[in-house]
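ugh ok fine here u go
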Amino acid sequence: MKARTMFAGLAAALMLAGCSSMPSISNPFEQPSITETYISQFRDVPIPAPMSTIPSETLVTVAPDGSKFGLESFSGRVDGTSLANIMMQNMARQGWQLRGSSVGVRSVQLYEKSPHYAAIFYREGVVNTSMDVWVVNGVNVDILSLVPEMHNSGAVPSYSGSGSGFSGAPASSYTDVSSGQVTKLSE
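structure:
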């Protein structure tokens, strides 16, 4: 009996010694720190370090002045609410002004930094959170005065063509759907 107790004690000591030299296993549910950032495609949009670029869902173009516009997609194992909060702080530090937001399982934040706009969309999944960052040039309001105001009248523009084919050239008139009346736009 004494030998058995001694053998059990020796086996337990060896097992404890062996377990202490094993590498620790990380907790898969532990959230990484999102306070560290890096700059990706857009030079004034800081991205939290745990978020990785998804190249297949990214489309960025370069303007003649070197600024970049378009969409960059990211994914990472972070909490969506924490990500949205840290992005709000990071964007404010870079001079972006928050113009609106909607929070939920799918959230959006709209920012302005004249003459540019940024829209950040968040989708929280079971394991990962996705983030789409859109950066666009501002709309030239003078160009809006050139757009005809047909949306209030119910008018639909029509296109001219011969027979059943479509010529692709815009017509010089449009048809008001509600009355069926044709209105001439220009001579």
